[in-house]
Automatic annotation (TrEMBL):
Cited PROSITE patterns: C_TYPE_LECTIN_1, C_TYPE_LECTIN_2
The organism's taxonomic lineage, starting at the top: Eukaryota, Metazoa, Ecdysozoa, Nematoda, Chromadorea
Residues annotated as domain C-type lectin: 1-73
Pfam families: Lectin_C
Protein's recorded name: C-type lectin domain-containing protein
Length: 119
């Protein structure tokens, strides 16, 4: 799989297009591919994916209907099961099952109780 969902969504605020993380965290880092986001190909281009194989993790806007894997992020301090690392601020897990962009948040919310901690 070359691309994965990154839980970034396009929104319209006061007639301006902005991008927001699905968990509400501040949007302080971006890695858009040159000429992206380009809003190409219709109104349903409201999700973002990361191409990690050929383009060094560059981001692209895309239709939320595309089926991709997803990377979920969560705060390890919110876990109910003790973790063994003290240095992590967030933990990532890739879900290898292709999902559409509308399923990202639901899927990530459902799996956060069973994630392995990366060191």
């Amino acid at each position: 799989m070359r691309s994965i969902w990154i839980a970034l969504r396009r929104a319209s605020v006061d007639n301006h297009t902005i991008w927001k993380w699905s968990d509400g965290s501040p949007f302080v880092y971006e890695n858009w591919q040159l000429f992206q986001p380009n809003d190409c190909c219709g109104d349903d281009v409201t999700c973002a994916k990361m191409n990690w194989l050929l383009l060094s993790g560059a981001w692209f806007d895309t239709s939320c209907l595309e089926k991709l894997g997803v990377v979920c992020k969560y705060d390890p301090s919110m876990r109910t099961v003790p973790i063994t690392t003290t240095e992590a601020n967030s933990v990532l897990r890739e879900n290898p099952n292709p999902l559409d962009g509308e399923s990202i948040k639901f899927t990530c919310d459902a799996v956060t109780q069973n994630l392995a901690v990366l060191r």
